[in-house]
């Protein structure tokens, strides 16, 4: 049997030490029996392209890689705000629509509700006249006990995956791969791969 | 010919006056010849369900509605941060994966790069040793001249849609539907519908 292909989604490409983390994730995926299918953006040549065209070229390459992949493992750790990287969210939806296996992880155990209440609204939420909990801007503060927006948690649930939450030290928010490995281990069982001890 | 179905994605459900805005969007979609396929969450009964189960029920209903839709019109106006609503991003990816027509709009003309540089990093970005522009946290500051993350802009481009940017008064950030209507007008042409003057 050929190795199942795993699309490793996440905002690592933006990190200062992103290349090393991506390499470590690729190595782990290989060790669990998957062929990692992330894109190395520097393989795409921007010469002669406008910034928009170059960005579109990356998008096309990523979509092609997703269509060729059997499973997505999405890093949903909050990125530049209270939610996951929005490009990763797009990719998770893309793979769920294709009916592919979907796994996710986040390196914080704080649910979306807490991040919204404390980090975004600084505690200033209250029950409104309509019975809903709302912020001072009138917006509803949803609490489904989920990691992030219900489409993300719900999509993974529908595709039979798991969404792993682990609390890591702040300095290791992006480099700690234990939760990522939890996903690989679960996906390896699903795909009938020999699982590491 | 039966009316094409339009999935109207966006964070309106969270707004204090969301119901009225959603009703106005549905009416406009109908006026342009589409059958709007948004979900009214209050049609789903949470009785006996855990918060997670109820959230998952909404997710399933939304995914079912998307699979039944011919086109998505996504409100990508920044929501609770520098990017679009993350649930909407998931839905845009979902529809692009299914090969459906994809349109988007945002009620600000400020590109992602400016929001990231000014609103998130407060101007503190600089060229790093590797030649990339980075914030003080070392993260890359991408500039593709796009509305948001390249997967969102790129997906709409690939599906042949348009991504409309309009600047509106702050008080009308969520209620101004001119850009939404631009999308409907373009989609109506694509679907061969009689277009309003």
From TrEMBL, chains A, B:
It holds the Pfam family Nuc_deoxyrib_tr. InterPro entries: Nucleoside_deoxyribTrfase. This is Nucleoside 2-deoxyribosyltransferase. The lineage of its organism: Bacteria, Pseudomonadati, Pseudomonadota, Alphaproteobacteria, Hyphomicrobiales.
């Amino acid at each position: 049997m050929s190795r199942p292909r795993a699309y490793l989604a996440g905002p690592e490409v933006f990190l200062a030490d992103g290349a090393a983390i991506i390499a470590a994730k690729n190595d782990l995926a290989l060790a669990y029996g998957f062929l990692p299918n992330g894109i190395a953006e520097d393989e795409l040549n921007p010469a002669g392209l406008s910034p928009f065209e170059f960005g579109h070229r990356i998008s096309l390459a990523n979509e092609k890689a997703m269509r060729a992949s059997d499973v997505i493992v999405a890093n949903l750790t909050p990125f530049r705000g209270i939610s996951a990287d929005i490009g990763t969210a797009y990719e998770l939806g893309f793979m769920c629509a294709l009916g592919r296996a979907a796994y996710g992880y986040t390196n914080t155990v704080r649910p979306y509700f807490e991040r919204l209440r404390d980090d975004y609204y600084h505690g200033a939420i209250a029950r409104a006249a309509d019975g809903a909990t709302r912020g001072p801007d009138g917006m509803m503060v949803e609490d489904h006990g989920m990691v992030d927006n219900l489409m993300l948690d719900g999509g993974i649930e529908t595709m039979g995956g798991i969404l792993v939450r682990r609390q890591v030290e702040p300095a290791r928010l992006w480099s700690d791969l234990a939760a990522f490995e939890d996903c690989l281990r679960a996906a390896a069982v699903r795909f009938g791969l020999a699982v590491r001890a």
